[in-house]
Specification:
Elements (H helix, E strand, L loop, with lengths): L57 H6 L1 E3 L3 E2 H21 L2 H6 L14 H18 L1 H12 L1 H22 L2 H5 L3 H28 L8 E4 L5 E4 L1 H20 L1 H11 L2 H21 L13 H14 L9 H6 L10 H17 L2 H9 L4 H7 L14 H25 L5 H27 L28 H25 L5 H22 L8 H23 L6 H6 L2 H7 L9 E2 L2 H6 L1
Parallel strand pairs: 1-4
Antiparallel strand pairs: 2-5, 3-4
Length: 598
């Protein structure tokens, strides 16, 4: 983003960036993007060949293949920290539905509190809501006061305290003395605050490890000349990041097995232990991270710029110092023209985020109602809450396939680059398929003996016998949701990072995460509909809503695919200056094989 105080000198530890080939920032009328991929490699005339390391010419941008740069080791360290945090988060939330829904006398599945499906789903949605509101707190603390890394460390300690409360109150003695419910509410509140402070900061922190902001020409070992594109590098970083998230989420396999075989206390001590390991990795690797210092009241400055635009019929150009000078007004602002352009770009991202609550309502069914649905089916000796792990396993398998095979194949053979807006719309469509399949499964359950439309009802065989439907029938629903995440969730994080001003990466990321909180709030209201014999209509409505939302979203915003590169170019010089170097400048993972593939 543009420096909000143009008189402040660049910090001494910032990266020294060459000013050769400086490109002029485009105005808002020329906002344009989408990496244009060529079908083939065309030879460039000898007198126009750019040497390796130089910025490509316009002709080279049109003809040379665009590839990812090397991924820094520091980015992988951060990904490991996120893996441990997600292991803890999904490991503890995996048994939540059974812990809340069933009473302490239930054995298959186990239980503790006995709130029933509707009550358990409502409390689960409260937890989701809180976890995605608190990122705003973490973002403000990081962007204005102490920076991303320090914020993550502080909120990680809060997270550990919440995990400890959950473990202690899940011990049999606590459950028998009525401590499970109040302990769970306290733990959810503390854990939600901790994970929120981490969420809004760790995803922009991992992308900031990529120091390059400009395209450059390189020659592969095969002799092919390519363009190393920072946009492709950021895309790949978030693919790796999301892959680690889903590897970590497999922790639910271990915790649900411990829940069934040992008890809830054993299921919750494992996430506590894993998170402590991740915290140690975070602290021990702190000297390797690329970090940037906070810029004081930057969020308040941003709101001042937006307020000026709102007062002037949403014309944010009026907030530009150059605009005021052209009118003869000698007004001293704390920002420059570039910052205003960055704020206009940020508003584009916020419009995109407005559609995400519909997507996340679909996604969250996997965390509660899908688990309850499995509990009414024949499990054949497995925990009902283990089925949700089909989702991360699918993500782990298909992220490399889509990233390294499908996308490159489409670019090479057909010249098709699936740009951000299109990827998000596809995510909505896959989520719709997942909800449609869940509706079909629920219909099959309602038409199967012995309890038909009231499965495991106390009036039907004492509520101990499930309907005769194998739980494996659920599998396609988890598959579709997983594929939707690769398109919608990964791209959403990438969009939040690339469209945010450099000093507001955490805050804009928190705006993206806020969509999840909105969906959880809506989910609390919808939890009343999670009752037999009408649950299939809930899934049907969500399937239709997600499909329509995806279509409308694409129709309204697909033009931003063509303005991607121009939007990303705004504030590029300031972003180069803002990054401080890690302790080892050349500390990278050699990903030349990635270049060869892509």
């Amino acid at each position: 983003m543009g420096n909000p105080n143009t008189d402040v000198k660049t910090q001494a530890n910032t990266v020294d960036v060459s000013r050769e080939n400086e490109e002029v920032l485009r105005t808002s009328e020329d906002l344009g993007v989408g990496v244009i991929e060529s079908k083939e490699h065309y030879p460039i005339q000898a007198d126009h060949i750019t040497p390796d390391g130089g910025e490509p010419t316009e002709e080279e941008c049109e003809t040379l293949r665009k590839v990812s740069d090397k991924i820094p080791w520091s980015a992988f360290l951060i990904a490991v920290v996120e893996l441990c945090e997600r292991f803890s988060y999904y490991g503890l939330s995996g048994p939540f539905q059974n812990y809340m829904e069933n009473d302490k006398h239930s054995t298959n599945p186990r239980g503790a509190i006995g709130l029933g499906q509707s009550g358990a789903t409502g409390l689960s949605n409260y937890f989701q809501f809180w976890c995605y509101v608190t990122p705003i707190i973490g973002a403000i603390v990081a962007d204005q006061y102490i920076g991303k890394l320090n914020t993550i460390i502080i909120f990680a300690l809060i997270y550990i305290a919440g995990l400890a409360v959950l473990f202690v109150t899940s011990l049999p003695v606590s459950i028998n003395h009525g401590g499970a419910l109040p302990g769970l509410v306290i733990a959810m509140t503390v854990i939600g605050l901790g994970t929120g402070g981490i969420k809004s900061n760790i995803s922009p922190l991992i992308a900031e490890q990529v120091k390059a902001t400009r395209k450059k020409v390189a020659t592969l070992a095969s002799g092919e000349r390519v363009i190393i594109d920072p946009a492709r590098t950021i895309e790949r970083v978030y693919m790796v990041f999301y892959l680690c998230i889903n590897v970590g989420s497999l922790g639910a396999i271990a915790t649900t097995e411990l829940e069934l075989k040992v008890g809830f206390w054993a299921a919750y001590v494992l996430p506590l232990s894993m998170f402590i390991i991740g915290f140690c990795v975070l602290v021990l690797g702190r000297k390797k991270y690329v970090v940037r210092k906070p810029q004081g009241s930057i969020i308040f400055i941003a709101f001042r710029v937006m307020w000026i635009g709102v007062k002037n019929k949403f014309n944010m150009d009026i907030a530009k110092p150059s605009y005021q000078r052209a009118l003869g007004n000698e007004v001293e602002y704390e920002w420059d023209d570039t910052f205003v352009e960055e704020m206009k770009r940020t508003m584009v991202a916020c419009k995109v985020f407005l559609y995400y609550p519909i997507y996340y309502i679909c996604y969250q069914q996997m965390l509660n109602n899908f688990i309850s649905q499995a509990g009414t089916m024949e499990l054949h000796g497995i925990p009902n809450d283990i089925m949700q792990n089909i989702d991360p396993i699918t993500v782990i398998i298909f992220i490399p396939i889509i990233d390294q095979l499908v996308f490159p194949f489409l670019r090479r053979k057909f010249g098709i680059a699936i740009k951000p807006i299109t990827r998000i719309a596809l995510g909505f469509c896959f989520a719709s398929c997942g909800m449609a399949w869940a509706a079909i499964v629920q219909h099959i359950i309602y038409t199967s003996p012995p309890c038909y439309r009231f499965p495991k009802s106390s009036e039907c065989l004492g509520g101990s016998v499930p309907n005769k439907v194998h739980v494996v029938v659920q599998t396609p629903a988890y598959f579709f949701i997983a594929i939707s995440e690769i398109f919608a969730s990964v791209t959403g994080m990438e969009y939040a990072f690339t469209k945010a001003p450099v000093s507001m990466k955490s805050f804009v990321m928190s705006m993206f995460l806020l969509a999840n909180a909105v969906s959880a709030a809506v989910g609390i209201g919808l939890s009343r509909a999670a009752k037999h014999p009408h649950i299939h209509w809930l899934y049907t409505g969500l399937a239709i809503s997600s499909f329509i939302a995806g279509g409308v979203f694409w129709l309204l915003y697909h033009r931003y695919n063509e303005t991607e590169e121009s939007m990303n170019a705004i504030g590029r010089n300031t972003e180069e200056e803002s990054r401080s170097a890690p302790s080892n400048e050349n500390d990278h993972v050699d990903t030349e094989s990635f270049l060869e593939i892509n």
